[in-house]
Fold Phenol 2-hydroxylase component B.
Amino acid sequence: MDDRLFRNAMGKFATGVTVITTELNGAVHGMTANAFMSVSLNPKLVLVSIGEKAKMLEKIQQSKKYAVNILSQDQKVLSMNFAGQLEKPVDVQFEELGGLPVIKDALAQISCQVVNEVQAGDHTLFIGEVTDIKITEQDPLLFFSGKYHQLAQNEKVETSS
């Protein structure tokens, strides 16, 4: 099977959009990713998958920590910024959570300490133990079939008994 068919099939799985951040030698680094998942409740573990060609790979390997910023529907431009899709980078407002830079007003911010690193094909899976969380009530930014989407706003449907 060819790479395009595989990518198209994987694109049929709707995901949220995250920006993974870390800090190394006083500099903030980030990348857009949708390869994120929760792994365990006890202990609280999450996983991010980083490609072998991504600059972020060595940053996380050196810092041994990362934050997951789950983006709200209003933060599409931040996703595009960290994916290198904008002609001019935008000014990003960061705050701090658990000693890590996180994106201000993200839907959720999750700081993690790396507890395991697994090579899997052309990616490295970083399993992180969650050290802190902050959430807000907003709608998520979604990604499906290579495009950004938002939740549909449904009107309340009344049913009769």
